[in-house]
Amino acid sequence: MRLRRSLAIASVVLLMVVWGSTFVITKAAAREIPPLTLAGLRFLIATAVLLPIAAARGGLKQLPRPLPLATLTSMAFTGIALFTIAFNYALIHGSASQGALIYACIPAAIALAARLFLGETLSSRRIAGVLLSVGGVALVAWAGDQGADSPRPLLGALWMLGAVLAFAAYTVLAKRLADVDQVVVTTCISVIGAAVLLPLAAVELLDVPWPSPSPAAWFGLLFLGVVASAIAFIVYGRALRELDASLVGALSNLDPIVGVLTAVLFLGETLHGGQIAGAVIALAGMWLASTR
Asked: What are φ and ψ of residue 47, in 5° steps?
Protein backbone atom coordinates (compact mmCIF):
# COMPACT_ATOMS: atom_id res chain seq x y z
CA MET A 1 0.00 0.00 0.00
CA ARG A 2 2.85 2.38 0.83
CA LEU A 3 4.50 1.62 -2.53
CA ARG A 4 1.24 2.29 -4.41
CA ARG A 5 0.81 5.56 -2.54
CA SER A 6 4.38 6.62 -3.32
CA LEU A 7 3.96 5.75 -7.00
CA ALA A 8 0.66 7.64 -7.10
CA ILE A 9 2.28 10.74 -5.60
CA ALA A 10 5.20 10.48 -8.05
CA SER A 11 2.79 10.14 -10.99
CA VAL A 12 0.86 13.24 -9.88
CA VAL A 13 4.11 15.22 -9.59
CA LEU A 14 5.12 14.17 -13.12
CA LEU A 15 1.60 14.94 -14.34
CA MET A 16 1.77 18.45 -12.89
CA VAL A 17 5.04 19.03 -14.75
CA VAL A 18 3.24 18.05 -17.98
CA TRP A 19 0.19 20.20 -17.22
CA GLY A 20 2.40 23.07 -16.08
CA SER A 21 3.93 23.20 -19.55
CA THR A 22 0.50 23.58 -21.15
CA PHE A 23 0.29 27.26 -20.19
CA VAL A 24 3.08 28.18 -22.61
CA ILE A 25 2.16 25.55 -25.23
CA THR A 26 -1.50 26.59 -25.28
CA LYS A 27 -0.66 30.29 -25.48
CA ALA A 28 1.72 29.67 -28.39
CA ALA A 29 -0.76 27.43 -30.24
CA ALA A 30 -3.64 29.88 -29.63
CA ARG A 31 -1.76 32.54 -31.59
CA GLU A 32 -2.34 30.46 -34.73
CA ILE A 33 -5.46 28.40 -33.93
CA PRO A 34 -8.72 29.98 -32.64
CA PRO A 35 -9.51 28.98 -29.03
CA LEU A 36 -12.63 26.85 -29.59
CA THR A 37 -11.06 25.14 -32.59
CA LEU A 38 -7.94 24.46 -30.53
CA ALA A 39 -10.07 22.90 -27.78
CA GLY A 40 -12.08 20.78 -30.22
CA LEU A 41 -9.02 19.50 -32.10
CA ARG A 42 -7.25 18.74 -28.82
CA PHE A 43 -9.91 16.29 -27.71
CA LEU A 44 -10.55 14.97 -31.19
CA ILE A 45 -6.91 13.85 -31.14
CA ALA A 46 -7.26 12.49 -27.61
CA THR A 47 -10.35 10.52 -28.62
CA ALA A 48 -8.60 9.06 -31.68
CA VAL A 49 -5.77 7.84 -29.44
CA LEU A 50 -8.01 6.45 -26.69
CA LEU A 51 -10.78 4.69 -28.65
CA PRO A 52 -8.77 1.70 -29.92
CA ILE A 53 -7.12 1.22 -26.52
CA ALA A 54 -10.46 1.31 -24.70
CA ALA A 55 -12.01 -1.08 -27.24
CA ALA A 56 -9.18 -3.56 -26.66
CA ARG A 57 -9.88 -3.42 -22.90
CA GLY A 58 -13.57 -4.26 -23.35
CA GLY A 59 -15.06 -0.82 -23.87
CA LEU A 60 -18.34 -0.09 -22.11
CA LYS A 61 -18.33 -3.58 -20.59
CA GLN A 62 -15.78 -2.27 -18.09
CA LEU A 63 -18.24 0.30 -16.71
CA PRO A 64 -20.64 -0.44 -13.84
CA ARG A 65 -24.34 -1.08 -14.45
CA PRO A 66 -26.43 0.91 -14.82
CA LEU A 67 -24.09 3.05 -16.87
CA PRO A 68 -23.06 6.19 -14.92
CA LEU A 69 -24.05 8.46 -17.80
CA ALA A 70 -24.85 11.43 -15.58
CA THR A 71 -21.45 11.32 -13.90
CA LEU A 72 -19.58 10.80 -17.18
CA THR A 73 -21.44 13.66 -18.86
CA SER A 74 -20.83 15.97 -15.90
CA MET A 75 -17.12 15.07 -15.94
CA ALA A 76 -16.95 15.81 -19.67
CA PHE A 77 -18.67 19.19 -19.31
CA THR A 78 -16.59 20.34 -16.32
CA GLY A 79 -13.16 18.78 -16.85
CA ILE A 80 -13.03 18.93 -20.64
CA ALA A 81 -15.46 21.36 -22.27
CA LEU A 82 -15.75 24.14 -19.67
CA PHE A 83 -12.20 23.81 -18.37
CA THR A 84 -10.54 23.83 -21.80
CA ILE A 85 -12.62 26.72 -23.13
CA ALA A 86 -11.92 28.84 -20.04
CA PHE A 87 -8.23 27.87 -20.04
CA ASN A 88 -7.76 28.81 -23.70
CA TYR A 89 -9.53 32.16 -23.42
CA ALA A 90 -7.59 32.97 -20.23
CA LEU A 91 -4.31 32.58 -22.11
CA ILE A 92 -5.53 34.66 -25.04
CA HIS A 93 -6.49 37.60 -22.82
CA GLY A 94 -3.78 37.23 -20.16
CA SER A 95 -0.14 36.16 -19.98
CA ALA A 96 1.02 32.59 -19.41
CA SER A 97 2.58 33.53 -16.06
CA GLN A 98 -0.61 35.24 -14.89
CA GLY A 99 -2.66 32.20 -15.85
CA ALA A 100 -0.26 29.86 -14.06
CA LEU A 101 -0.31 31.93 -10.89
CA ILE A 102 -4.10 32.21 -10.76
CA TYR A 103 -4.32 28.47 -11.36
CA ALA A 104 -2.60 28.13 -7.99
CA CYS A 105 -6.03 28.65 -6.41
CA ILE A 106 -6.99 25.12 -7.45
CA PRO A 107 -5.69 23.27 -4.34
CA ALA A 108 -7.91 25.33 -2.07
CA ALA A 109 -10.86 24.90 -4.44
CA ILE A 110 -10.38 21.11 -4.60
CA ALA A 111 -9.88 20.78 -0.84
CA LEU A 112 -13.05 22.78 -0.16
CA ALA A 113 -15.05 20.82 -2.74
CA ALA A 114 -13.76 17.51 -1.33
CA ARG A 115 -14.76 18.56 2.17
CA LEU A 116 -18.22 19.74 1.10
CA PHE A 117 -19.18 17.02 -1.40
CA LEU A 118 -17.01 14.00 -0.56
CA GLY A 119 -16.90 14.37 3.21
CA GLU A 120 -13.10 14.10 3.25
CA THR A 121 -11.53 15.07 6.56
CA LEU A 122 -8.64 17.49 6.47
CA SER A 123 -6.00 16.90 9.14
CA SER A 124 -4.29 19.89 10.69
CA ARG A 125 -1.07 18.81 8.95
CA ARG A 126 -2.74 18.72 5.55
CA ILE A 127 -4.50 22.04 6.13
CA ALA A 128 -1.16 23.57 7.09
CA GLY A 129 0.46 22.10 3.98
CA VAL A 130 -2.27 23.42 1.69
CA LEU A 131 -2.14 26.88 3.27
CA LEU A 132 1.66 26.95 3.10
CA SER A 133 1.72 25.91 -0.54
CA VAL A 134 -1.00 28.40 -1.50
CA GLY A 135 0.86 31.10 0.42
CA GLY A 136 4.03 30.25 -1.48
CA VAL A 137 2.30 30.61 -4.81
CA ALA A 138 0.72 33.87 -3.60
CA LEU A 139 4.25 35.12 -2.97
CA VAL A 140 5.15 34.09 -6.52
CA ALA A 141 2.18 36.11 -7.79
CA TRP A 142 2.99 39.16 -5.66
CA ALA A 143 6.64 39.23 -6.70
CA GLY A 144 6.08 38.80 -10.43
CA ASP A 145 5.56 41.29 -13.22
CA GLN A 146 2.68 41.32 -15.65
CA GLY A 147 3.49 39.67 -18.98
CA ALA A 148 3.78 41.90 -22.03
CA ASP A 149 1.50 39.64 -24.05
CA SER A 150 -1.55 40.33 -21.88
CA PRO A 151 -4.05 42.62 -23.69
CA ARG A 152 -6.92 42.16 -21.19
CA PRO A 153 -5.43 40.77 -17.96
CA LEU A 154 -8.57 41.18 -15.84
CA LEU A 155 -10.67 39.26 -18.33
CA GLY A 156 -7.94 36.64 -18.56
CA ALA A 157 -7.91 36.32 -14.78
CA LEU A 158 -11.68 35.77 -14.67
CA TRP A 159 -11.47 33.08 -17.37
CA MET A 160 -8.71 31.27 -15.45
CA LEU A 161 -10.75 31.44 -12.25
CA GLY A 162 -13.56 29.76 -14.18
CA ALA A 163 -11.10 27.06 -15.27
CA VAL A 164 -10.10 26.51 -11.63
CA LEU A 165 -13.71 26.05 -10.52
CA ALA A 166 -14.45 23.73 -13.44
CA PHE A 167 -11.51 21.47 -12.66
CA ALA A 168 -12.29 21.39 -8.95
CA ALA A 169 -15.78 20.16 -9.86
CA TYR A 170 -14.27 17.58 -12.22
CA THR A 171 -11.99 16.24 -9.47
CA VAL A 172 -14.91 15.67 -7.12
CA LEU A 173 -16.90 13.93 -9.87
CA ALA A 174 -13.91 11.82 -10.96
CA LYS A 175 -13.51 10.50 -7.42
CA ARG A 176 -16.87 8.71 -7.84
CA LEU A 177 -15.46 6.56 -10.67
CA ALA A 178 -11.91 6.24 -9.35
CA ASP A 179 -12.28 2.45 -8.99
CA VAL A 180 -13.45 1.96 -12.59
CA ASP A 181 -11.12 1.27 -15.55
CA GLN A 182 -9.63 4.74 -16.12
CA VAL A 183 -8.83 4.16 -19.79
CA VAL A 184 -12.50 3.52 -20.53
CA VAL A 185 -13.67 6.36 -18.29
CA THR A 186 -11.24 8.81 -19.92
CA THR A 187 -12.30 7.65 -23.38
CA CYS A 188 -15.98 8.18 -22.59
CA ILE A 189 -15.52 11.71 -21.27
CA SER A 190 -13.19 12.54 -24.16
CA VAL A 191 -15.82 11.42 -26.68
CA ILE A 192 -18.51 13.47 -24.94
CA GLY A 193 -16.21 16.47 -24.57
CA ALA A 194 -15.23 16.38 -28.25
CA ALA A 195 -18.90 16.09 -29.22
CA VAL A 196 -19.57 19.31 -27.30
CA LEU A 197 -16.49 21.21 -28.49
CA LEU A 198 -16.43 20.38 -32.20
CA PRO A 199 -19.80 22.04 -33.05
CA LEU A 200 -18.62 25.15 -31.19
CA ALA A 201 -15.42 25.07 -33.23
CA ALA A 202 -17.43 24.80 -36.44
CA VAL A 203 -19.45 27.88 -35.51
CA GLU A 204 -16.24 29.73 -34.63
CA LEU A 205 -14.71 28.97 -38.03
CA LEU A 206 -17.72 30.57 -39.72
CA ASP A 207 -16.65 33.95 -38.30
CA VAL A 208 -12.86 33.76 -38.48
CA PRO A 209 -10.45 32.85 -41.28
CA TRP A 210 -9.49 29.20 -41.41
CA PRO A 211 -6.15 28.83 -39.64
CA SER A 212 -2.92 27.70 -41.30
CA PRO A 213 -0.92 26.47 -38.31
CA SER A 214 2.85 26.18 -38.45
CA PRO A 215 4.57 22.85 -37.75
CA ALA A 216 5.34 24.10 -34.23
CA ALA A 217 1.63 24.79 -33.60
CA TRP A 218 0.70 21.32 -34.88
CA PHE A 219 3.33 19.77 -32.60
CA GLY A 220 1.91 21.71 -29.66
CA LEU A 221 -1.60 20.56 -30.54
CA LEU A 222 -0.45 16.93 -30.69
CA PHE A 223 1.23 17.30 -27.30
CA LEU A 224 -1.96 18.77 -25.83
CA GLY A 225 -4.12 16.00 -27.30
CA VAL A 226 -1.96 12.94 -26.68
CA VAL A 227 0.19 13.68 -23.63
CA ALA A 228 -1.66 16.44 -21.74
CA SER A 229 -5.13 14.97 -22.38
CA ALA A 230 -5.30 11.27 -23.29
CA ILE A 231 -2.43 10.06 -21.10
CA ALA A 232 -2.72 12.71 -18.41
CA PHE A 233 -6.42 12.18 -17.61
CA ILE A 234 -5.81 8.42 -17.22
CA VAL A 235 -2.94 9.06 -14.81
CA TYR A 236 -5.04 11.61 -12.89
CA GLY A 237 -7.94 9.20 -12.51
CA ARG A 238 -5.68 6.39 -11.27
CA ALA A 239 -4.02 8.75 -8.77
CA LEU A 240 -7.45 9.60 -7.33
CA ARG A 241 -7.90 5.86 -6.68
CA GLU A 242 -4.99 5.89 -4.23
CA LEU A 243 -5.03 9.45 -2.89
CA ASP A 244 -7.54 11.83 -1.34
CA ALA A 245 -8.80 14.53 -3.68
CA SER A 246 -7.54 17.21 -1.27
CA LEU A 247 -4.02 15.71 -1.36
CA VAL A 248 -4.04 15.66 -5.16
CA GLY A 249 -5.13 19.29 -5.01
CA ALA A 250 -2.18 20.16 -2.75
CA LEU A 251 0.26 18.47 -5.13
CA SER A 252 -1.17 20.47 -8.01
CA ASN A 253 0.66 23.53 -6.68
CA LEU A 254 3.58 22.27 -8.74
CA ASP A 255 1.53 23.04 -11.87
CA PRO A 256 1.70 26.86 -11.65
CA ILE A 257 5.36 26.78 -10.62
CA VAL A 258 6.22 24.85 -13.80
CA GLY A 259 3.99 27.25 -15.72
CA VAL A 260 5.94 30.27 -14.48
CA LEU A 261 9.31 28.62 -15.13
CA THR A 262 8.39 27.67 -18.69
CA ALA A 263 7.06 31.19 -19.28
CA VAL A 264 10.45 32.54 -18.19
CA LEU A 265 12.39 30.10 -20.35
CA PHE A 266 10.30 30.21 -23.53
CA LEU A 267 8.48 33.55 -23.43
CA GLY A 268 11.25 35.64 -21.91
CA GLU A 269 9.33 36.68 -18.79
CA THR A 270 11.40 37.75 -15.79
CA LEU A 271 11.66 35.61 -12.65
CA HIS A 272 12.53 37.52 -9.46
CA GLY A 273 13.95 36.39 -6.13
CA GLY A 274 10.55 36.60 -4.48
CA GLN A 275 9.13 34.20 -7.02
CA ILE A 276 11.93 31.71 -6.36
CA ALA A 277 11.30 31.99 -2.61
CA GLY A 278 7.58 31.45 -3.16
CA ALA A 279 8.27 28.35 -5.24
CA VAL A 280 10.40 26.89 -2.44
CA ILE A 281 7.66 27.59 0.13
CA ALA A 282 5.03 26.02 -2.11
CA LEU A 283 7.14 22.88 -2.57
CA ALA A 284 7.58 22.67 1.20
CA GLY A 285 3.81 22.88 1.61
CA MET A 286 3.27 20.11 -0.93
CA TRP A 287 5.71 17.89 0.99
CA LEU A 288 3.93 18.62 4.25
CA ALA A 289 0.50 17.85 2.78
CA SER A 290 1.59 14.68 0.99
CA THR A 291 3.43 12.91 3.81
CA ARG A 292 1.88 11.22 6.82
From this structure: -65, -40
